[in-house]
Design brief:
Jelly Rolls, 9 helices, binds alpha-L-arabinofuranose, 2 domains, non-reducing end alpha-L-arabinofuranosidase, Glycosyl_Hydrolase_51, six-stranded antiparallel beta sheet, signal, nine-stranded parallel beta sheet, EC 3.2.1.55, 30% strand, ASD1_cat
Length: 619
């Protein structure tokens, strides 16, 4: 295939290009990114919802009972646990399907109520053989009628052989008045990313940062929408002290504590240099409840309050609240998405007729610099509004959509807010009625995604950015596969998927401008995008080969680039189209970079094998 790339005539591309989509699904936050190790720490419910003793059990002969006391820890956390016994008593937690123990400092705390003159023992120990890895003796400050917080640290001397470990908190019940004490908000964190209190799990942040993403779309996804209007994701219930966060039932069948809230999302953006794409609730819940036109103003105001909380000066009501919670400096929000998939679940007509317009008008009036994005393209977009496009499909259909954006105008930018090849080629498309979705991305699917991404890169002036979804999965409890990154309780097992490697290669070789190309052959089985990076002054060719019966020879020229110019050519392949990167397993994606030189008339000659993804950059 001969390809000649012109030296001008292209477009300026999006600076965001590839990012991350996050919502609470697959225990990606609770039991994942959010580094809290104690599951069901405040008896808000965990795998089921609401209040229960999930993940807890009694130590020795003691008994645990849930209590809704007349003087609870807080109105947000009304349920606590009473531990009753004789002698050594307490409770133990199995974590999020294991607890990773290694020689590092674990910071813990708990609230207790009841008259007690002794001390507490916090410990980490093996379930397999009872070996104790660390203990801390905590002197009691507990009193009869009030909740008192106790802090402690645990520092194991060695790495536990597995994550089959528990956390225990015990006391001498014979020294407690009435032989019992009440506990709540029992928490334990390992060292977190940037050592933030209430922070994020280091290995997962690292796996994300290694991919060099540019934006974060949050907090959903279906989880933003809620199972009912009242069950929606409420930003104001995810801020402030942890004891003020009530938690909620996610839409994915388990509870969330609210510990990873709005501020934590923004800190995540700060820590990884991500552009926030904030989704606000749009008046549609998954049970098809829709807010009427008469009442939509309440929720529009709530979105404006949220924006004031994030961006307002400390002289505003909500800006002052942000300052009170430790962030006097306002954040900048440039993108707001209104809802999620509002063309589904009975939301289409109300979204088209009044819901989107109500948010768009109010947000653009108060914040003219914010790019408002509709959660669907199935709507006539007003002004400069953008739209969100989601694609879950079989690999062949990803390839068929290579040209999808060629016919779009750049009037209304598109967010590719959820993208994933989910099940094997079946000659049709995704079968939503059953569960054929692959557990992990597999190489053929990742190459098909690359073809689709190249189609988007060729039109990158029309696109805000692209993200895989869902992004994370805890293999011990998940609802939706495949995902970009998979993990369990052991950070050493975290798997960057085959798709991760494709996105990473494309992201590391960002084109600031597209350049038009002509060829002696039409697209397929070789698909490509061409352009340059005007910061590094490098010309770029990105390609994928899908469904070829032989290697594809390529003769590539860039207008103005002469004989002898060198380039790096990186080619990704895998042992087979079925290769997957599994939790605890090896990386199956092979990456080979060679230096090549332009020959006569500046031609770069090379060939690309079937099911390969490649990038050539001139030096
Ligand atoms: O990514 C999983 C789900 O797929 C999202 O929550 C929803 O937006 C989409 O339907």
């Amino acid at each position: 295939v001969q390809i000649s790339v012109a030296k001008s005539g292209g477009n300026v591309t999006t600076s965001l290009q590839y990012g991350v989509m996050e919502e609470e699904i697959n225990h990606c936050g609770e039991g994942g990114l959010y580094a809290e190790l104690i599951r069901n720490r405040a008896f808000q419910g965990s795998t089921t919802y609401p209040s229960n003793l999930d993940a807890w059990s009694a130590v020795g002969g003691s008994a645990l009972s849930l209590q809704n006391l007349s003087n609870p820890l807080s109105s947000a956390l009304p349920t606590s646990v009473r531990v009753e016994g004789n002698g050594t008593s307490g409770l133990t937690n199995v974590g999020f399907w294991g607890i990773d123990v290694r020689p590092q400092k674990y910071s813990g705390s708990f609230y207790v109520k009841g008259s007690y003159k002794g001390s507490f023992i916090a410990s980490l120990q093996s379930i397999t053989n009872g070996e104790v890895f660390a203990t801390a003796k905590v002197s009691s400050k507990s009193v009869a009628d009030d909740w008192v917080q106790h802090d402690f640290t645990l520092t194991p001397k060695k790495t536990a052989p597995s994550t089959n470990n528990t956390f225990s908190l015990t006391f001498d019940a014979s020294k407690a008045s009435g032989g019992s004490l009440d506990f709540n908000l029992i928490s334990l964190f390992p060292p977190t990313w940037n050592n933030r209190p209430n922070g994020m799990r280091r290995d997962l942040m690292q796996a994300m940062r290694d991919l060099n993403p540019k934006f974060l779309r949050f907090p959903g996804g279906n989880n933003l929408e809620g199972n009912s209007i009242d069950g929606r994701w409420k930003w104001n219930e995810t801020i402030g002290p942890l004891k003020s966060r009530p938690g909620r039932a996610t839409t994915w069948g388990y509870g969330e504590t609210g510990g990873m809230g709005l501020v934590e999302y923004m800190e995540w953006c700060d820590d990884l240099g991500l552009e926030p794409i904030l989704a606000v609730w749009s008046g549609l819940a998954l049970n098809r409840q829709v807010v009427s036109k008469a009442n939509i103003g309440v929720y529009v105001q709530d979105a404006l309050n949220e924006l004031e909380f994030l961006t307002g000066s400390v002289d505003t009501e909500y800006g002052a609240l942000r300052a009170k919670y430790g962030h006097p400096e306002p954040w900048t929000i440039r993108f707001v998405e209104v809802g999620n998939e509002d063309s589904l679940n009975g939301g289409a007509s109300s979204y088209k007729s009044y819901r989107f317009a109500a948010f768009y008008d109010a947000i653009t009036e108060k914040y003219p610099d914010i790019q408002v994005i509709a959660s669907t393209l199935d709507i006539t977009l007003p002004g400069n509004a953008g739209g969100d496009y989601h694609l879950y499909d079989i690999p062949d259909n990803f390839v068929k959509k290579f040209n999808l954006f060629d016919s779009y105008s750049d009037e209304h930018p598109i967010l590719l807010g959820e993208i994933a090849a989910t099940e094997w080629n079946n000659g049709k498309g995704v079968d939503w009625s059953d569960t054929h979705f692959s557990l992990y991305p597999w190489w053929l699917a990742s190459v098909s995604e690359a073809v689709f991404l190249l189609g988007a890169e060729r039109n990158a002036d029309k696109i805000i950015g692209t993200t895989y979804a869902p992004y994370f999965m805890n293999l011990d409890s998940y609802e939706w596969s495949p995902t970009m990154i998979s993990f369990n309780a052991n950070p050493d097992d975290t798997a960057k998927s085959t798709s991760w490697h494709v996105y990473s290669l494309f992201n590391d070789n960002h084109m600031t401008n597209t350049l038009p190309a002509t060829s002696n052959s039409s697209f397929g089985p070789l698909y490509y995008a061409t352009g340059l990076n005007n910061k590094t002054n490098s010309h770029i060719f990105k390609a994928a080969v899908y469904n070829s019966t032989a290697d594809v020879p390529v003769s590539l020229t860039f207008e103005g680039i002469g004989r002898g110019t060198t380039a790096d050519l990186t080619i990704l392949t895998a042992p087979s189209g079925f290769s997957m990167n599994e939790v605890g397993g090896p990386n199956t994606v092979e990456s080979q970079t060679t230096k090549i030189k332009a020959g006569k008339q500046g031609v770069f000659s090379f060939s690309l094998p079937n099911l390969s993804v490649a990038v050539l950059t001139t030096k």
